[in-house]
Design brief:
Layout lengths: L6 E12 L5 E9 L9 H15 L4 E6 L2 E6 L5 E12 L3 E10 L12 E9 L2 E11 L11 H31 L2 E8 L6 E2 L1
Parallel strand pairs: 1-9
Antiparallel strand pairs: 1-2, 1-10, 2-8, 3-4, 4-5, 5-6, 6-7, 7-8
C-alpha cells in the first residue's frame, strides 16, 4: 500500500472587492518555505497556472500562450474569454513579478478592454517565499458599466468572482501540495488591502 501523505493545514489570504469605479481587485496569496526562493519564479507560476486552468475546467477553458499574447479560449474554438498581452517582468530587491495586461475577450467590457492586469508575484519575507496572484482594474462584462445594478453585482458575485476565487485558491493549494508532497487542508483568510464592496 502507498504511504499516506501527511496532512498539513495552511492559510491562504484572499480579498475580492469592487472598487468605487466598479473595477475588480482580487488577490490571493500563500507562503512557501524559504527553500523555494531560488526555484519558484513568477514565470514558473504562470506556466503552472495556465496548465491548472485547463485541468481544473476539464479543458472547457483552454489557455493559449503565443508570442507576447495569452488567451483563455472556450473549448476548441477561437472564442477568447479573456485576452492578454505580455507577460512583462518587473523586479526589486526582494520581489519579482510577471504581469499580463488585459486586451479583450467576451468576459471584458468592450469600452474597458485595454484596462486591468493579472500579475504573478514572488516576494521574499522573513519566514519564506510569499506567492501572490493579483487581478487589478478588471472591468467584467457582467457588471455592464461603472454603475452596475444590484442584480448585475449579484450575478457577477455568484459566477465569475466565485469561479476566479476557487480556481486561484485551488491553484495555490495544489502548488504547495505538489512541492511539499503533503495532503493540504486549506483555510481561506480574509485580508483587507483595498477599500471596496466585497464580492
Amino acid at each position: 500500500m502507498a504511504e499516506e501523505q501527511p496532512r498539513v493545514r495552511k492559510k491562504i489570504g484572499c480579498q475580492q472587492v469592487l472598487l468605487k469605479d466598479s473595477s475588480v481587485f482580487s488577490i490571493q496569496w500563500m507562503v512557501l518555505p524559504a527553500t523555494y526562493i531560488d526555484t519558484i519564479t513568477p514565470s514558473h507560476l504562470l506556466d503552472r497556472y495556465l496548465n491548472h486552468v485547463r485541468l481544473f475546467t476539464f479543458s472547457l477553458i483552454r489557455p493559449f500562450q503565443m508570442e507576447n499574447q495569452v488567451e483563455f479560449r472556450l473549448l476548441g474554438t477561437r472564442i477568447s474569454l479573456i485576452s492578454f498581452t505580455g507577460p512583462a517582468a518587473h523586479a526589486s530587491d526582494r520581489s519579482q513579478a510577471l504581469s499580463l495586461s488585459i486586451s479583450g475577450g467576451v468576459l471584458v467590457q468592450k469600452e474597458n478592454c485595454h484596462r486591468g492586469e493579472l500579475t504573478f508575484i514572488t516576494k521574499q519575507i522573513g519566514n519564506g517565499l510569499k506567492v501572490i496572484l493579483q487581478l487589478s482594474d478588471f472591468c467584467p462584462m457582467l457588471l455592464g458599466s461603472e454603475s452596475p445594478s444590484r442584480l448585475r453585482k449579484l450575478l457577477y458575485r455568484l459566477t465569475q468572482a466565485y469561479i476566479h476565487k476557487i480556481v486561484t485558491v485551488q491553484f495555490l493549494a495544489r502548488l504547495y501540495s505538489d512541492l511539499e508532497g503533503v495532503n493540504l487542508r486549506v483555510r481561506v483568510v480574509k485580508v483587507k488591502l483595498r477599500e471596496g464592496e466585497d464580492t
